[in-house]
Amino acid sequence: MTLRSLVIALVMAPLVVGCSDTSVPMSQPPSDAGDEAFIKRVIPIMWGRKPSSIREVDILVQLIEQSSRTDVVYRMSRSAEFVERWSLFLRDHLGVFRLGDQSNADCYGRSLLARDDAALATHVRDTTPDGPAFSEPFTMVDIMRSSLWLDDVSPSFEAHLFAWLKQDYALPDAGAGRAARQAKSEVFLHRWLGRRMECLACHNSDQSVTDHTDPQLDRAWPVDISVERAVFGQSTGTGFEMLRPFFRRFQVVAGAYYDGDGPETDAGLQAEINAAMAPWGMAADCGRFKHGSEIREDDQGETGTLAGSTNARASIWDLERLVRQGFDSLRHADAIEDKLFDINGPDALAWMTSQHLVNSVWKEVYGHQLTIATWFPRTSEQRDTLASLTRYFVKNHYSLGALLAAISTSPHFNRLPPAESEPADHLFADIFDPWTNDGIPASERRNHAGDLVHRLPARVLLNSVYHALGWHPPKEFPETFLSRDAIIQRSAGVYLKDGDAGFGGIGFQAQLAWEDVFGACYDVGPCPLIATGERGELTESDLCLICAEPDTFCAMDDRCCDLELSEDICPSTCSAEDIDPRGIPTLMEGPVDALFIERLLRHSQNVVAQGGSLTLRDVLGALKDRLLTDPIIEDPSEVAVIEALVGTTLDTPVDPADLTLDAKIRRVCGVWLATPDFQLWGWTGNNRRTRPVSLVAPGTEFLTLCQNITKPMYGADGAECAGNEVFIAR
Q1: Which residues make Cβ contacts (< 8 Å) with residue 725, sequence separation at least 6?
Q2: Mean pLDDT, the chain, integer
Q3: What is the pTM for the complete model shown?
Q4: Which of 212, 276, 311, 601 has its CA 20 to 30 Å from the CA of residue 323?
Q5: What is the structure's pLDDT at 588?
Q6: Comparing 264-268, 318-322, 479-483, 524-528, which segment has the lowest mean pLDDT?
Q7: Distances (CA, A) of 720 to 702, 707, 708
Q8: Where are the alpha helices (DSSP H) in 12-139?
Q9: Which residue stretches of 549-582 are H helix?
Q10: CA–CA separation, 513 and 521 (whole Å)
Q11: With 0-12 CB in 10 A as exposed, 13-18 as middle and 19+ as buried, what is 682?
Q12: Residues 6 or more apart from 331 whose CB is under 8 A from it?
């Protein structure tokens, strides 16, 4: 073994071992916060929301006690919630625009497949794009979801190359076309490879201006693999004229022309599109392409050179071939280190893509990257962690579930707060904040358990509100820049496009916007009737009722006051017999888990009407459990604040005739939604599993939650729920 090979083997010392092996033998640090805190931290990561109640936490803790944290986390990736949460993440990671001319809601915002399984991703992984088509047309939503069911995200990246190229601005001439290619090339470097060409002259995997022979003074710790040399031909990068041909649309994307140069009629343009190739049988909205064998030399005279391949007719077909070759090569490698020592171009493309995704996932979990602005680690701890996790991700066939199991069972994930542990236990190596701590007292140094606490990712934060309260979320692809859907997401920091990139921190303006949207704890999203119609659940009788009584719906829910009713929506054959007012509540209530506060209020009043006894403390405890996973309200300072908010004591009995109860509940709800307990990840609050709960809200009973959780994780017969216990079948 050469010295370089030995160094790589040591650097790549795995966090975990074994291909497709999800067992992560980690010894927990002495300051581990326990299984309840672990589950409170892991649910937002895996399912994209806060826990729905302390009972949900209890169920997952019991499963850990019968198996392991690693096993439970990996099984959580087998749920539809995981697939939805991480398919949104993949779109954000790849820079899918949700607004503007470059957005493509028809391909990236809707599904065409009735089934939701791994079949499509398996087909894309195992078939070239010009091979046999899948059994039915599909969109990028379908392939991203299917990739997560397959537990291999590589098919999403391959299909995205084509669909991403389909949508762009109208280009007036060749000069604009060159600029568009340039932009695509830069996005590819940034979003796929985690590099910027202008930085490589000073910082690359072979050398850096911040290198030093003394490890104490060394500020550059790249993963020791010459990936830039393999991809660009030299470590310092290459000219963009070598990359631009891979992203040309003219003569590649069917129907893509410079203004005035296309077919004279729309029919001629459509005929060209219909006759073109659909990679893997993708839907037309995801693009039609001239076959690779039909593509001529670049109209701008540029020759594509990448990953050891040079081609005067280079196009997206060639880039997909190189990416696929690299993914397949590393996926089937028996010894990853041997592949990386003298790495070739396609393997380097796959490694860089994987490493950048791992870095992005790490940031999604911890709020910190493992690299600095140069896209390279600054400390040996960052380097070793990034290298080990990337190796593990590749070794496990690009499995996000396995990667998240490794990250969440690392020694950093579940530490006690600094106030509850010894200084030696809560200090970390320089991994979250890599900047120098010289001269700072140990008690004040960065890289301790306090660095775990950060604001939830924007989509997770919003989804936590909508899931907890049963509201309709805003559209992923808003209609306009100033639409309510766009404003809500923008104010929370959601990525909408590169020019509206979102944010992850907490600022005064962001909190004012949050209060404006959620402070009153009323759903300010679209009228529920709109979502009901989009799901295809409105009958002709329903439409007749809506068109005849729009003022009624406005009075019931002010979100419906601006409901636009056109002649296309309202049937012309409506008669008085068609209008059944009893349909109004059904339409407005929505799914069974909708409108949590309304259901909680109704349930509480029914309990009292039937002879039970409840206080305001009981009702608010159920709401606090839903929002903060803590049903207990006993701290004197908290009690005093809440009583001031509601204008009465928490021991006030619930009166079924009290019309002010709804407003009181919502007032407290709005405050809780703005608290650090709701908005921050890493602080898990008090342990509450063993405390009795006075009021269980409908839909959050132990058995209901237990069955919903265990079926996707263990199958129909893999676990049994009984009483307040869950048992894994042996």
Answers
A1: 62
A2: 88
A3: 0.89
A4: 276
A5: 54
A6: 524-528
A7: 12, 8, 11
A8: 35-47, 54-66, 69-76, 80-93, 105-108, 119-126
A9: 550-556
A10: 13
A11: buried
A12: 152, 154, 394, 397, 398
